[in-house]
Write a structure and sequence with these properties.
40% of the residues lie in helices and 15% in strands. The protein is of the alpha/beta class and 252 residues long. It has a seven-stranded parallel sheet, sandwiched between helices. The longest helix is centred in the middle third of the chain and has 29 residues, at 107-135.
């Protein structure tokens, strides 16, 4: 099991203060990593930080809005100054515009989703990779979605961004492989979070349950195991792949 041991490794998780990000942050901490929680809600940051510290995991919280481009490099610099060089970069921060389709979605909503879900992933990965290259090792984990593969008439900007994450992941994997940096993505299915909560009261919920062989929604902590695998030595020969964690939703 030492192949999955993250002791001594430093992991930064954007949006690590809630939902899937919190589940991943706690999972990486449990595997031994020193975890930096990056999020824009300082209150939520401190709650997750207290959870990590209560379990005895070395950790810090850094206030960061991933759409604030000038703040990205200082945030990662703070992580490295307090915990050490970043070994694992988890690009999890996300948002959604439930616009109902391209005819309804505003340009402002489109831009905000793309900036959060795609542009920030590119910019943070670039910064983290430069640091990883100097140590000749690193793991970048992007968070995709079932909408990386399927279209949605309700959330076009989200679907566009998550589809692009697949190609960005593959492209970075090719470029960074010579530096022993592996780049992969996780594609969660329907996971119970604050962002997905409204869907549970919509007719769509019945369709989700009918389509998912597991017959239920997933929990944020159920994504953590895949993140630990992709952050660990166990995945050193795995790069450019997208792993669904969806209870079988993508089978059909």
């Amino acid at each position: 099991m030492d192949m999955f041991d993250l002791t001594g490794r430093v992991a930064a998780v954007t949006g690590g203060n809630g939902g899937i990000g919190r589940g991943i942050a706690l999972g990486l901490g449990a595997a031994g990593a020193k975890v930096a929680v990056l999020g824009r809600n300082e209150g939520k940051n401190q709650l997750v930080l207290s959870e990590l510290k209560a379990l005895g995991y070395p950790s810090i919280a850094v206030s960061l809005d991933v759409t604030n481009r000038p703040g990205l490099e200082p945030a990662l610099r703070k992580v490295e100054s307090e915990l050490g060089g970043i070994d694992v970069m988890v690009n999890n921060a996300g948002n959604v515009s439930l616009s109902g389709g391209v005819l309804n979605e505003t340009a402002e909503d489109w831009d905000n989703v793309i900036e959060t879900q795609l542009n920030a992933v590119f910019l943070l990965s670039k910064l983290a990779a430069k640091s990883m290259m100097s140590r000749k090792r690193g793991k970048i984990i992007n968070i995709g979605s079932m909408y990386s593969f399927f279209g949605s008439g309700l959330i076009p900007s989200y679907s566009a961004a998550k589809g692009a994450i697949v190609q960005l992941t593959k492209s970075m994997a090719i470029e960074l492989a010579p530096y022993n940096i592996q780049v992969n993505a996780i594609a969660p299915g329907w996971i119970e979070t604050d962002m997905t909560a409204p869907v549970k009261s919509m007719p769509l919920n019945a369709e989700i349950l009918a389509r998912t062989p597991a017959g239920r929604w997933g929990q944020p902590e159920e994504v953590a195991g895949t993140a630990v695998f992709l952050a660990s030595r166990a995945s050193d020969f795995v790069t450019g792949t997208i792993i669904p964690v969806d209870g079988g939703y993508a089978i059909r």
